[in-house]
Write a structure and sequence with these properties.
Radius of gyration of chain A: 26 Å
Strand content of chain A: over 45%
Structural class of chain A: mainly beta
Largest sheet of chain A: 16 strands, antiparallel, barrel
Number of helices of chain A: 2
Chains: A mainly beta, B alpha/beta, C mainly alpha
Oligomer: heterotrimer
Shape of chain A: elongated
Structural class of chain C: mainly alpha
Number of strands of chain C: 0
Helix content of chain C: 40-55%
């Protein structure tokens, strides 16, 4: 690489974005842009995502990555993710034929859900910053290691993680075996602190004479300001070249999570024999979870297109099981552009403690959650991506996806009064994404 | 002499078999370079380390005279256009041979891309390398130096 | 058959396949022209992958399998 002499050159007027970023990145790493003899250049990519669930959550996410090769086999990868989330999310309570009042998670203020509509907590507003770095290098000509670290910070959540992986090539690089370990430590600091499991939501309906009285009652349902989760993962992989056009990958993964796995914002409605909500209580999940996963992927290069298909099976000790089928088919055209349809099918069996509500007559179980995300469901994604080359040789991609989540209504309750109530609302989302490689 | 014959025998059937095919068929007879060291390289447009080996081969091409060293880079792309566009980006000052059917690659049983074989002045293969590593440039250069300095 | 047994069996079978079969699979070094394309890499669209992982992690109860799922998201 011919290094540009920045000290005598004019300011960054005619310098490309990639070059500006190179300066910024080298400055960030404390290295001088001129003090290296490595011939590789930084590669950058960026992605901008708009995610929208009508009437619910909307999110924007920006990802910027930079990578650089060093010497024969070493490579540094850096990634920064910034996302912001606003909108409303189902809080777990069931809809009623009369309006319902909820206390906001912070305890400050209330919101009212109209009759016959799914209660949504509209207080979600969060910004997340994530920084990740990974370094890979060869050990021998047939083996290499990767070490990575990951930091994530949002208003009510912090995470620190590190991972390491070893990979070995065999059989003229036609077979690769890999083994990796990963650890993450998360801290949850929810707005309004951590609620006591199954305690009733304190709702000010005029029963409190003073504000102090209300806050005493509210604070009595809180147990801690924060809690932690630690996650350990093992991932074993086998990649095999089948022939000139085809390869397969098979992974086994084991994950163990310990700590506060409950969602502090999620509620359960306690209903009487007529389906009328009598109480709203905070959910409770086990404080450990172990998960096994199998993942199989194949890629096939046709003359003018590339097809991939993957299947993933996940099973955990919450008795949640899931099957995922994911497939892309990239059709290349002359001039470096391509069209790529995408289909994803997801099937999930509920966690054993999932229930859409609690019956008043029932004794309180040890664990319960009405979070639709751990219920029986199926989901489907269809998408299309278009990739093209720009005049300067840079590449860009636009991706549009539609995601629809449909809960299984097989376990619909027999409680009278709830027959006509939508216990399991569907979720739709639109995803628009723009990728740029420079 | 026996070795020369052996090399000829290796290459010869291929020449016969493809004698009437197009002109891209490689005809490498190492013995014709008798008295010179031959650096035989195998490359392809899709081979990433080849982008590093080309500038280096240009450099050693400059360091030695044509009487001392022959550099032959055998292209293994299946389509000539791919090789041509690589060469536009990484121009070569040494000889390029085209072997779209990988016949030479099979003969020499190369184990990776790029691969190189260094023949001494008598046409005997002395050193072979799989891959091209910046870390090993000193070694490659020392080997060439040793063989060119040798009287055999 | 329990999940542990299934996994053990899966491992035994895949190890057998690796040890016996894989030497007959594969390509010669000079036949990697298609496999060498960036589009043929196992993770050829890391940006999409990262975004998909984030979305499905926050909408579904299972994550990971392909690569490390990691922590770091209290997303709703």
């Amino acid at each position: 690489m011919q290094l540009r002499n920045q000290s005598t050159g004019s300011p960054l007027k005619n310098v490309s974005l990639a070059e500006k970023l190179t300066l910024a990145t080298t400055a960030l790493l404390g290295a001088s842009a001129n003090a290296q003899q490595v011939d590789a250049e930084w590669n950058y990519s960026a992605s901008l995502l708009a995610y929208s669930e009508p009437d619910r959550v909307s999110a924007t996410e920006l990802i910027v990555t930079a990578d650089k090769a060093y010497g024969d086999a070493a490579k540094l990868d850096l990634k920064v993710v910034l996302d912001s989330l606003t909108g409303a999310s189902a809080n777990g309570a069931i809809e009623q034929d009369n309006p319902q009042t909820f206390t906001r998670p912070s305890g400050k203020g209330q919101f009212v859900t109209a009759a016959n509509s799914t209660p949504l907590d509209d207080t979600f507003k969060d910004t997340r910053l994530q920084i990740a770095a990974s370094w890979t290098d060869s050990i021998t000509e047939q083996s290499r290691y990767t070490i990575a670290t990951n930091l994530s910070r949002e208003y009510d959540y912090r995470s620190v993680g590190a991972s390491g992986e070893l990979a070995w090539d065999f059989n003229q690089k036609n077979t690769t075996l890999s083994a990796g370990l990963s650890f993450a430590s998360d801290e949850i600091l929810p707005e309004g602190d951590i609620p006591l499991a199954f305690s009733s939501m304190v709702i000010d309906q005029g029963q409190f004479v003073t504000e102090d009285e209300y806050w005493n009652a509210f604070d009595a349902t809180r147990i801690a300001e924060s809690d932690t989760v630690s996650t350990s993962e093992l991932l074993l992989g086998w990649t095999q070249v089948i022939n000139r056009r085809m390869l397969v990958q098979l992974n086994y993964g084991y994950a163990d999570m310990q700590g506060y796995l409950t969602d502090p914002f999620k509620l359960l409605s306690v209903v009487d024999d007529n389906g009328q909500t009598q109480d709203l209580v905070y959910e409770n999940r086990p404080d450990s979870r172990t998960q096994h996963s199998l993942f199989a992927l194949t890629k096939y290069h046709f003359d003018e297109s590339i097809f991939d298909l993957s299947y993933r099976y996940i099973s955990d000790d919450w008795e949640m099981k899931s099957h995922t089928i994911d497939s892309h088919w990239r059709f290349m055209t002359i001039g470096g552009s391509f069209w790529e349809p995408h289909v994803r099918i997801y099937l999930q069996d509920a966690a054993e403690f999932y229930q859409p509500f609690l019956a008043q007559s029932q004794t309180t179980p040890e664990f319960a959650s009405a979070d639709y995300r751990i219920g029986d469901m199926s989901a489907m994604t269809v998408g299309l991506k278009y990739g093209f080359q720009l005049e300067g040789g840079e590449r860009a991609e636009v991706r549009l996806e539609y995601y629809r989540q449909t809960p299984n209504k097989a376990n619909q309750s027999s409680v009278s009064g709830l027959e006509n109530i939508e216990l399991y609302p569907e979720v739709d989302a639109l995803i628009l994404q723009f990728n740029y490689y420079f | 002499m026996l070795k020369k014959i052996a090399i000829l025998l290796l290459v010869f059937p291929m020449l016969i078999a493809n004698a009437r095919a197009n002109e891209e068929i490689p005809t490498i007879d190492i013995s014709q370079f008798n008295g010179k060291v031959v650096y035989l390289d195998f490359w392809a447009s899709w081979c990433v380390p080849c982008r590093k080996s080309f500038p280096w081969m240009n450099k050693i091409r400059q360091q030695y005279s044509d009487d001392q060293l022959v550099i032959i880079a055998v292209n293994l792309d299946k389509k000539r256009e791919l090789a041509d566009s690589f060469l536009k980006e990484y121009p070569a000052t040494f000889d390029i041979y085209y072997d779209p059917k990988s016949l030479l690659a099979k003969k020499y049983q190369i184990k990776g891309m790029p691969s190189s074989i260094i023949f001494n002045k008598n046409g005997k293969p002395v050193f072979a390398h799989t891959g091209f590593f910046l870390d090993k440039i000193e070694q490659y250069e020392a080997e060439i130096k040793q063989l060119t300095a040798s009287s055999k | 058959m329990g999940i542990r047994h299934k996994i053990k069996l899966f491992f035994a079978v895949s190890l057998l396949i690796v040890l016996s079969g894989c030497s007959s699979w594969g390509v010669a070094p000079w036949d990697r022209d298609l496999l060498a394309k960036p589009e043929m890499a196992i993770n050829s669209s890391p940006l999409d992958q990262s975004i998909d992982d984030h979305i499905y992690f926050s909408k579904e109860a299972s994550s990971g399998g392909r690569s490390f799922a990691g922590g770091g998201c209290g997303c709703n």
